[in-house]
Amino acid sequence: MTSASRLALAALLLSAAPALAEGTLNIYNFGLYTPPDLLEKFEKTYDVKVTLTEYDSNETAMAKIEAGGHGFDIVMPSASVVPIYIEKGLLLKSEPNQMENFKNVDPKWVEIYWDNGRHYTVPWVWGTTGVMVNTKVYKGDINTSAIFLDPPEELKGKINVVPSMNDVIDMTIRYVGGEPCTTDKAVLKAARDKLIAAKPSWASIDYTSFEKFINEDINASVFWSGAANRIRAENAGFAYGYPKEGYSLWQDNVAILADAQNVENAKLFLNFIMAPENAALISNYTRYGNGIIGSDAFMDPGLADAPEMIIPENLKAAGHFQQTCPPEAQAFYTRIWTDLTK
Amino acid sequence: MADRAFDIRRMPGAVTLAVVCFVILYIPMVILVANSFNAGKVIGQWEGLSLRWYLAALQNEAFLAAAANSLVLATIAAFMATVLATMAALATTRSDGFRGKGAIHIVLNQPLMVPEIVLAIALLIILAQVKQATGYTGLGYLIAAHTTFCIPFAYMPIRARLEGMDMTLETAAADLYASRAYAFRRVTLPLLAPGILAGFMLAFVVSLDDVVISSFLKSPGQETLPTYLMGELRRNLSSEIYAISSLLLLISVLIVAGSWLATRQKT
Amino acid sequence: MTPADTRRRWGLALPAVAVITLFSILPLGVVVLYSVLTPGDYGNVRWVLSGEGWFSVLFERDMFDETVSLSDAHITILFRSVGLSLATTLLTLIFGVPTAWFIATRAPRQRGFWLFLITIPFWTNLLVRTIAIQEIIRAEGVLNRILIGLGLIEQPLQMMFTNFAVLLGMAYVFLPLMVLPVYAAIEKFDFRLAEAGYDLYASRAYCLRRVILPLVRPGIIAGSILVFVPSLGAYVTPRIMGGGNSMMLGNLIEMQFGQGRNWPLGAALSITLTLLVLGALIWYTRLTTGGRRHG
C-alpha cells in the first residue's frame, strides 16, 4: 500500500461521524462566551445534542464561514459585521420576529441599523468598550479616554490597551474631536500623533490575562464592560469608566447560517434564548446585558444593577454604536495601528 | 597513555551548560505545577494547598475532549510525517547528486517557509471546496495539514543523522547476499533509529503547539487543546489552567518513564 | 548513479513531495494569486487585479501629501524580525549544542530518557508555558525577587513586554528544534575513533576542528534552519511576550488577514517572507551538498 493510500485510509478511519444526523446543533461562538448550563438545559429540553466550537475574532469566523463547508448552524456576529454577513448572503432569513418569545425582546433592540426589525438575528449580549482603572492608585475622574491617551502620572507604565484596533482608534478619534471611520486626514493625523505620544506610558497592547489586573501589575486598561465586572469581583479597587469624549456600544447577535444543516434545531435555539430565564443564564456567565425584558429577575444578585451594566444618564449620549468602516478608512486605521505597534 | 586520561566525550563546559539548560527548561514547569495546587482562583495569589482544580479539570468535558483530539491528531500526524520524512531523507542523502535532488530538498522544507496564518487561510479556501464536494468533515483535514507542516521538522534531524553515515555495514550486508529489504531492516534502520526518534518527537511537539491552522480548519467538535486553551486564556485565567497543564505533564512523564523502563528491561 | 537508482530515490521521496505539493505548495499558489488582487470590503479579496499589495510591502504613500516613501514601519519590523531570529538562533546554539553533546555521550540506554526530558516541557501548551515564563520575569516575579534579595538591584527590572522578553520566549520555545537535530547528528559518531586519534597524535584543538566540527556541522545547520525560519514568522510568542509593543513579521502578516482586512498585502508580505527564506535555504543546500563534494 502506498503512503498516500495509507494516509487516505487513516483519514477515513478517524473521521468523526459527520454531525448531519437528526437531533444535533452546531454552534460557532467566541471563546468563553457560551454558558455550559444554558447548552445543557437546551439539550435536555429538546433532546438535541449541541456541539460548541469557538473562534477568536469576527474576522476568523467570517473567513471560515465565507469559505463554506464549515458545518456550523449558528454563529454570533457582532453588530458591526451583521450587515456584511447579510450582504454576502451568509445568513438565513429565519424571521425571529415571528417567534413565540420575540415579545420579550426590548423594543430598543429591535429597531437597529444592522438588522432592522430582526429578520435574521436575535440579541446575544451587549456591552460597552470603555476604560477600567484601579481607583486605589488613581483618584481622579475615570470617565475619560485621557486615562490612556493623556495618562495621569500615577498610572504611567501600568496601562494596557486591548489590541482591538477599531475600538481603540475610534475612541482616539473621538478624543481628538472627530468621527470614527473618517477619512479626514487632519483628524487621522491628530489621532495617530496622540496614540504615538501616549504609547511610551503604556505597558502593553495585549489581551491581558485577568490575573495581571487582580495582582495589580496593570492598573488601567481600555476594556470591555463585562470583563471589567469580572475583575471587580476579584479586586474591588477597579472601576469601569465611560469616556465622556466618546465610547463604543456593541452587541453580539445570534444568527442561523444560510447553509445550516439543522435549521429547525437552530430556530428552537433562537427562540429558547429569548426566554428571560435563559437569557439571564447568558448574562450570569458573560457578565454582559442581554436585551431581554424580565431577565433581570433571574440574574445573579448585583449583576442587573452593576455599574458596568448601567450607563450613567449624563454619559449616555457619549456612547455610539460601532460601525464597520469602509475600506478607505480601514486602510488608514491599519496604517495608524502599524505605526503604533511597529 | 593513562596519564593523558582524556575522554573526548568530556568537552569543557558542555556538562555545565547542559545542566543549566535543563534547569532553565524545568523552572517554568515547577512554577506551573506548584500553582496548580493553589486553593485560590487567581494565579500569583497563594491561598493554600488544594486539589480542587484537579477535580474541576477532570470534570471538564470540553477540556477532556480537546485533549483527546490533540493527542490523536499529534500522534497520527507525527507518525505519518516521520514515515514520509524518513523515506525522503533516504532518497536525498548518501549519494552524489542526482537529477532533482536539490528540488526535492527545497520542496521538503517549503512548509517551514510559510507563516502559519497564511497556510491556514490558503488551506481553508482550498479544503472548504473539498468539504463541500465530498461532504466529509472528519479529522482527516487536520491530520493532512498537520502531517504536512510536520514533515520538515521530522526530515531535518533524520537527514542530519544520515548525512555521511557510514555505509560499510550496509555494503557488507549486501555483499553477504542479504536482500535489500533485509539489510535495510536489520542494518540501516537501527543505525537511523535515534534520528527517527528525534524527528518524531519534534513533529509531535510541533503538532501539539499549533493554534492557528487548527482553528481555521476545525469542523464542529474538533476543538484541539491549543484552540481550547487559547480561548480560555484570553479572558479567564484561573488556576484550573495550571491543573490541566500539570495533568498533561503527568501523562507525558508516565509515558516517558514507561518507555524507558520497557527498553531497560530488554537488556 | 544509474537511472534505476535515480528512479528508486524519486520513488522514496515521492509520497512526501506529493503531500507537501497538495497541502502546502498548491495553497501557496492561492496566496500568490491573492497578492495581486484588491482587498474586499471586509477581509477576503475582490477579483480585480491590483499591484497595491506588493507596492505596500516596502512603500507607502504619505497619508497627507501622497508622496511615496519607503515604509518605515514595515522596514523596522523586517529588521527586528531578522535580528531577533538571528539572536534566537545564537542563543539556542549556545545552550542546545552542549546539551545535545551531553545527551549523545550518555550510555546508549539512557539517551532516549534524556531526549524525552528535553521534549517534555514542550508537551505543555505553548501559551501556558509562556505564562509560566512570565511568572519568572514579571515585576513581582521570581527573578526580580532573587536579584533584589541578592542586593544586585534595588528596583524591579521591567523585563516583560520588551525585545528581551520576546527573545527569551522564542529561545525557550525553539530550543528542542536545535537540540534534537544536533543530537541526531552527533549520536552516530563512534567516539573511540576520536579518542584513538587523540591518543595517537592529535592535539585537542586539532581533534575539535578536524573530527568533531565536521561531525556536528550537519546537525547545527539543520537546527539553525529549524530555529531561524519559524522565528522569522513567529506569531504567538512575540505577541504574548512583547505585549503587542514590538511587532514581528508574523504579527504584521496576521494583522493584514485579521483586523487590517487587507489580504492582498498580507499575501504579498508572506510571499516576501517565503522568498527570503528560500534564499537562505538555497544557500544552505549549497553548503551541505557542495561541502561534501570537496571532501
Structural class of chain A: alpha/beta
Work out the largest interface and the residue count of each chain: B-C, 116 and 112 residues
The name CATH uses for the topology of the largest domain in chain A is D-Maltodextrin-Binding Protein, domain 2
CATH first level of the domain at 72-259 in chain C: Mainly Alpha
Named at the architecture level, the CATH assignment of the largest domain in chain A is 3-Layer(aba) Sandwich
Low-confidence parts of chain A: 1-21
Helix content of chain C: over 70%
The computed structural class of chain C is mainly alpha
Mass-distribution shape of chain C: globular
Q: Could you give the order of the helices and strands of chain A?
A: HEHEHEHEHEHHEHEHEEHHEH
Q: What would you call the shape of chain A? A: globular
Tell me how many strands of chain A there are.
10
| Helical stretch tally of chain C | 12
- Tally of helical runs of chain A: 12
Major β-sheet strand ordering of chain C? 1-2
The helix/strand order of chain C is HEEHEEHHHHHHHHHH
Strand count, sense and closure of the main sheet of chain A? 10 strands, mixed
Strand and helix map with partners:
The complex is a heterotrimer of chains A (342), B (267) and C (295).
Chain A: H1 3-14, E1 24-30, H2 36-46, E2 49-55, H3 58-67, E3 74-75, H4 82-87, E4 121-134, H5 146-149, E5 159-161, H6 165-175, H7 185-198, E6 202-205, H8 211-214, E7 220-224, H9 225-234, E8 238-241, E9 247-256, H10 263-273, H11 276-286, E10 319-321, H12 327-341
Helix pairs in contact in A: 6-7, 7-12
Chain B: H1 14-36, H2 52-58, H3 61-92, H4 101-113, H5 116-134, H6 140-162, H7 168-175, H8 180-209, H9 212-217, H10 225-235, H11 239-266
Chain C: H1 3-34, E1 38-39, E2 45-46, H2 52-58, E3 59-61, E4 68-70, H3 72-104, H4 108-119, H5 126-137, H6 142-149, H7 163-187, H8 191-200, H9 204-232, H10 236-241, H11 249-257, H12 263-294
Antiparallel strand pairs in C: 1-2, 3-4
Task: Please give a structural write-up.
The complex is a heterotrimer of chains A (342), B (267) and C (295). Chain A is built from twelve helices and ten strands. Chain A has helices at 3-14, 36-46, 58-67, 82-87, 146-149, 165-175, 185-198, 211-214, 225-234, 263-273, 276-286, 327-341, and strands at 24-30, 49-55, 74-75, 121-134, 159-161, 202-205, 220-224, 238-241, 247-256, 319-321. In chain A, strands 1, 2, 3, 4, 5, 6, 7, 8, 9 and 10 form a ten-stranded mixed beta sheet that branches. The model of chain B is unreliable at 1-5 (pLDDT under 50). Chain B has a domain at 59-239: MetI-like (MetI-like fold), CATH 1.10.3720.10. Chain B has 267 residues and is mainly alpha-helical. The longest helix of chain C is centred in the N-terminal third of the chain and has 33 residues, at 72-104. In chain C, helix 3 (72-104) packs across helix 9 (204-232) and helix 11 (249-257) packs antiparallel against helix 12 (263-294). In chain C, 51% of the residues are buried. Chains in contact: A-B, A-C, B-C. Chains A and B meet through helix 1, strand 1, strand 2, helix 3 and helix 9 of A and helix 3, helix 5, helix 6 and helix 10 of B.
